[in-house]
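re the bet — no i am not wrong, look at it urself. input seq straight from the record:
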Amino acid sequence: MTATLLFFFGSAAVFLFALWRERQPKEDGVPRWIPYTGIQFVALLAMVLAGAHLVTLWTGTPLIGRFSR
């Protein structure tokens, strides 16, 4: 559970850092070399997956999709 919590909060930190960098004003005519929006998407996906895993660890039953029958 510790590893999953660290992964969740690490992903949240990466998301917040990318959000901060995305909101910085950029110079006209100079492209950004790092796609911070894509980094936010990947970090958010990692947070959702880690959150689902945390729910599984806390409840003791795995999460089941709607169409898993």
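see?? The helical segments are 2-22, 36-59. told u. also The chain has a mean pLDDT of 91. so pay up
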